[in-house]
Every structure is written in C-alpha cells, then in structure tokens.
Amino acid sequence: MSDNQLKIAIRHSLHTAHGEFPMEVSFALEKGRIMALTGPSGAGKTTLLKQIAGLQTPLQGQIHFDGTAWLDSENHQNVAPQHRNIGFVFQDYALFPNMTVAENLSYALAKGSDATIVDELLAATGLDQLSQRKPSQLSGGQQQRVALARALVRKPGLLLLDEPFSAVDPEMRYQLQELILQFHKRYHFTAIIVTHETAEIFRLADQVGVMENGKLTRFGAPAAIYLHSDAPDESFFIHGEVLRTALAGDQLLVDVSIENKIRLIRLPLAMQNEVTIGRKFVLHYPLTFPQISWMS
Amino acid sequence: MDYQPIWLTFRLATITSLILLALALPVAYWLAFGKFKGRGVVEAVIGLPLVLPPSVIGFYLLLAFSPSYWFGAWIEEILGIRLVFSFPGLVIASILYSLPFMVYPIRAGLQSLSPSLREASYTLGKNEWETFFKVLLPNCKPAILTAFVLTFAHTVGEFGVVLMIGGNIPGVTKVASVAIYNEVEALNYSVANQYAMVLFAISFVILLLVYSINNRLLRVRQSA
Fold it and tell me: N or C: which end of chain A has fewer CB within 10 A?
C-alpha cells in the first residue's frame, strides 16, 4: 500500500471536433502535491477534471481519494459531487451574479458550520473591502480571487483548477499564483491545475501530467519532463534571461525575465552551474513538452 | 358599462398565471436539463396551443369537461364541481392554452445560464433543489417576468376557448373579450368601445411597467 492519496484509473470515450477517440488515464498523486495537467486543447484535460469532481462520469474505472471510492464502476459506486471532498475553480469563474462576494462565499458553508472561515478567506484574498460588491462590479483578477476563496470555504482535500488564470493579465496571474501557494501552505490541500503556461507549471507544480489525445503521455516532476526532453521542438519560442538565483532546500529558485515580465521558476540543484546571472536562454515551447536551451 | 367582465378577465389572468408559474418551473427545468427520452413528444404537446385554433382546444375541452364523458363525470364525482360553463373550468382551459407562453421563456432563460453555475453549486455541496431556487431562478428573473407577462396577456386576450367552454354567464364566465363580442352583436358599439379601450389601456400600462423593470434588471446585471 503506497501513501498515494488520489488514485485514478478510468476509460472513457471523448467526443471532439476531430471525432471520437478513446480516453484512458491512470495516475496516482501523493497527499499535498500540486499537479499540473497540460497538453493541447481537446486532449481531455477538462473532461478528466470534471470526472474527478463527479460532474461527469467516465464509462468505466475507479477514482479513490483518501481510501474512499468516489467512483467504482464495477461496484456501481459513484459518489455525487456534493459528497466528494473537493473544491473546483472554473475557467469562467462561475460566480453567482445574484450574490455579493460575501454571499458567494457563505453559500458554500454547510448548514450550522463555522462562518469564520469566510472572513478568514476574505481577509487572506484582500477582498474584505469588496465583500458587499456583486461579481459584475469586480475586475477579472478580483473575480478569480473570489472563485478561489469560494472553492476553499469547505476546506477541500482536493482542489481542482481548470485554467484558472487564462483570462487575467500576467501581473495578476503572478499574484494569483502566489495566493495559491500561500493557501496551499495554510490548508494543505492536494491540487490539480490545468494550465498551458510552462512558467506557471514550474512555479506551482511538483508533478506534471501531459495529456495528448485522451492519454497521459508523460507524468513526472516538471524538471524531468521539460528540461531533459528528447522531443523535437515544433512550435514557438520564448526568450528569457536569468536575473537572480537563490537556494531553497534541494531546489534552485531562479528569477527570470520572460517577455519583459519577471517570473520565478524552480530548477533542480544539479543545474546550479548552468544557471548564472545574465545568461540568456530560449524556451522551446511546443504545445506539449517545452525544452530549455542556453544561448550564452 | 358593466365592470364585471373586466374584473373577471383580470382575476382569471392572475389566477391562471400564478398556477401556471408553479407548474411551469419544474417542467421548464426538466426540459432544460433533464436527460430523458421522448423529450420531443413533451415539447410538441406543450407547443400545440401555439398552432391549434383556439376553437379546436375549446371543442375537445368541452367534450372532456362535459359530465356525459368520463373525465367530466369523474371530476364532478370527486370534487363536486362541474368544469364546463364554470370559472374553475375556465382556469384549467387557460392553463392549457397558455402553457407554452410560460414554459418556453423560462426554459430559454435557464438554458442561457452558464452550465458552470450549476456545476459550481454542486461542487459547493448544494443539491439540485437548492441550486435551482438560490442560483438558477434568481439569475433568470427577466425571463420569468417575461413569461409571466406573456401568459397574463395571452389569457386576457383569450376568446375562442372561453366562448367554447365558458359560454357567457355574467360574473362567472363572461370575460371582457366575450363581452365586447356580445355588445358588437347587439350593435352597442359605444359600450364595446369602452370595454376595448379599458383592456387596451390596462394591457399597455402592464407591458410598459414590465419592460421598464426588465430593462432595469438587465442594466443592473450588465453594469460593471
């Protein structure tokens, strides 16, 4: 028995613009991990996320969390989303337009449960001043913070995020990533985040799953997936420069400038000699497995 | 001019719209999100009053409500009311006749909401019931208002069905549209004109109020 908290093995049939193809995914995740799910659109990432949440049901398979079967098609077990220990952050925020920010959060409270978590989350997200506003009176970044806070009200064991930051500008994206890391430290959830951004993956995730055509084609630590890839580059390039480096445990924290924005990425300690200040690099960024190469 | 037909018309329209609202909410929800076979049959049946001549609906309801047939006889035995040529009969007929005007706008309103609203509510631990009343309905208020007003107006404008099954009993089934017809038949054009003017004015004011409210609701939602 391993100490994996989340165990998934499902089969499904995906209907896409390119026709129907089989989906087959299995992986396991340890408690407290943040996993990034990436890959071309239409590969089944959102479907997988919704199946884990119980919003969709795969044709067959098992999903176990903390030893409980959320789904076991052989034993006809399928726990409703209401009773899965999850938080879900939707791509379009899915805030309830008829409720204020505070009401959106308190809606998630179970009857008779302690409401202090709402104030705690409002304060932590810096939304306390805006708590009486309606979602339509907020900016995109503010709405996304409400969505994140709301998903955490029930203190979920598993947080699922579907491209949560795709509609906000890079500066806001950076702040929201910071917020997720803070919350992760405080509430100790396990998380799966669907994202296309390599920098985001390096910043947030300790596991990456690459999905292509309904299959999980790669699964591992970000450095292993991206930095030692033998895959051919095919798509576009992002130029960057190393600004600052710092040591943190067995990792190297590196501030890089990518497209005029400063980003923090985590690299394995083994790369310490390669990563020097001022060194320029190119991230080869095909949709699936980007690669780093040094220019100087 | 006798105001009783006007009063009766608005009483009929109000009662019909209120009962129909309660009936249409689950039907609209079911049509919008339910997974079932035979949806087409249900939709076709609900939509029939849109295409059938009111006299056809009135004729079959007349047969159904008549104590000489099993349904009318059964109702009379169970509830002790005769549906034909009575106010309760008019209400039931109006409900059937205006069904699509209540169901379709509400269904469209529900379907226009992002599916993620429902999904978000489920992931926050709320069941379908709570999701429907606290999330879905409050966010399609304009659609519900439109449906209610269309139903009300359609019932006020009802003539053929009423004439077939209600007849012309003052204070019971003689609604304004029938009264106008009677006065014209009796060549009392000025009385007919008075009824017509009152209906015209009240209907216009109601629609005006509703669309002003609706526009305000939409503006509030869009303002950022």
Answer: N
